[in-house]
Amino acid sequence: MNKRNYKKEYKKYGKSKAAKKYRAELNQYNRKSGTYGNGDGKDAAHEGGKIKRFVKAAINRANNRPKKRGSK
Protein backbone atom coordinates (compact mmCIF):
# COMPACT_ATOMS: atom_id res chain seq x y z
CA MET A 1 0.00 0.00 0.00
CA ASN A 2 1.49 3.34 -1.06
CA LYS A 3 1.61 6.38 1.20
CA ARG A 4 -0.13 9.49 -0.09
CA ASN A 5 2.17 12.28 -1.17
CA TYR A 6 0.36 15.28 0.26
CA LYS A 7 3.02 17.73 -0.91
CA LYS A 8 2.58 16.60 -4.51
CA GLU A 9 -1.22 16.72 -4.23
CA TYR A 10 -1.15 20.27 -2.87
CA LYS A 11 1.15 21.44 -5.67
CA LYS A 12 -1.32 20.09 -8.22
CA TYR A 13 -4.35 21.55 -6.41
CA GLY A 14 -5.99 24.43 -8.24
CA LYS A 15 -3.70 24.34 -11.30
CA SER A 16 -6.27 23.21 -13.84
CA LYS A 17 -7.64 25.73 -16.33
CA ALA A 18 -11.13 25.26 -14.92
CA ALA A 19 -9.99 25.99 -11.35
CA LYS A 20 -8.09 29.11 -12.44
CA LYS A 21 -11.09 30.39 -14.41
CA TYR A 22 -13.39 29.73 -11.43
CA ARG A 23 -11.07 31.60 -9.05
CA ALA A 24 -10.60 34.51 -11.46
CA GLU A 25 -14.37 34.85 -11.89
CA LEU A 26 -14.94 35.04 -8.12
CA ASN A 27 -12.06 37.50 -7.62
CA GLN A 28 -13.38 39.74 -10.39
CA TYR A 29 -16.85 39.75 -8.80
CA ASN A 30 -15.32 40.65 -5.42
CA ARG A 31 -13.31 43.50 -6.92
CA LYS A 32 -16.33 44.94 -8.75
CA SER A 33 -18.36 44.77 -5.55
CA GLY A 34 -15.62 46.52 -3.60
CA THR A 35 -15.23 43.67 -1.12
CA TYR A 36 -11.93 42.19 -2.30
CA GLY A 37 -9.40 42.17 0.55
CA ASN A 38 -11.44 44.26 2.97
CA GLY A 39 -11.22 41.63 5.73
CA ASP A 40 -14.96 41.14 6.20
CA GLY A 41 -14.56 37.33 6.13
CA LYS A 42 -17.04 36.86 3.30
CA ASP A 43 -16.67 35.05 -0.03
CA ALA A 44 -18.66 35.33 -3.25
CA ALA A 45 -20.82 32.23 -3.60
CA HIS A 46 -22.31 30.45 -6.58
CA GLU A 47 -25.97 29.57 -6.59
CA GLY A 48 -27.45 27.78 -9.59
CA GLY A 49 -24.23 28.24 -11.59
CA LYS A 50 -24.10 32.03 -11.12
CA ILE A 51 -22.47 34.23 -8.53
CA LYS A 52 -25.33 35.63 -6.53
CA ARG A 53 -24.38 36.41 -2.95
CA PHE A 54 -21.77 36.75 -0.26
CA VAL A 55 -21.54 34.23 2.57
CA LYS A 56 -19.12 33.55 5.42
CA ALA A 57 -15.89 32.11 4.02
CA ALA A 58 -15.94 29.05 6.31
CA ILE A 59 -19.45 28.07 5.20
CA ASN A 60 -18.75 28.69 1.51
CA ARG A 61 -15.57 26.63 1.52
CA ALA A 62 -17.26 23.80 3.42
CA ASN A 63 -19.90 23.62 0.66
CA ASN A 64 -17.25 22.90 -1.98
CA ARG A 65 -16.27 19.51 -0.60
CA PRO A 66 -17.65 16.19 -1.79
CA LYS A 67 -20.96 15.43 -0.08
CA LYS A 68 -20.20 11.73 0.30
CA ARG A 69 -16.81 10.78 1.60
CA GLY A 70 -15.15 7.46 0.96
CA SER A 71 -14.68 5.03 3.82
CA LYS A 72 -11.46 3.26 4.65
Number of strands: 2
- What sort of overall outline do the alpha carbons produce when their principal axes are compared? elongated
Helix/strand structural class = alpha+beta
Spatial strand order of the main sheet: 1-2
**Approximately what portion of the residues adopt beta-strand conformation?**
15-25%
Order of helices and strands: HHEEH
**Amino-to-carboxy terminus distance:** 13 Å
Q: Give the averaged pLDDT, no decimals.
A: 82
Number of helices: 3
Q: Give me the Rg, rounded.
A: 15 Å
The count of domains is: 1
Largest β-sheet summary? 2 strands, antiparallel
Helix proportion of residues, in percent?
40-55%
Which residues sit in consecutive blocks of at least 5 with pLDDT less than 50? none
Task: Describe, in plain words, how this protein is organized in 3D.
Helices cover 42% and strands 18% of the residues. It has 72 residues and is α+β, with helices and mostly antiparallel strands. The chain has one domain. It has a two-stranded antiparallel sheet. Strand 1 and strand 2 form a beta hairpin.
Summarize, please.
By secondary structure, this protein is α+β, with helices and mostly antiparallel strands. It contains three helices and two strands, in the order ααββα.
Features:
alpha+beta, 2 strands
Fold blueprint:
Layout: H1 6-12, H2 17-33, E1 42-47, E2 50-56, H3 57-62
Antiparallel strand pairs: 1-2
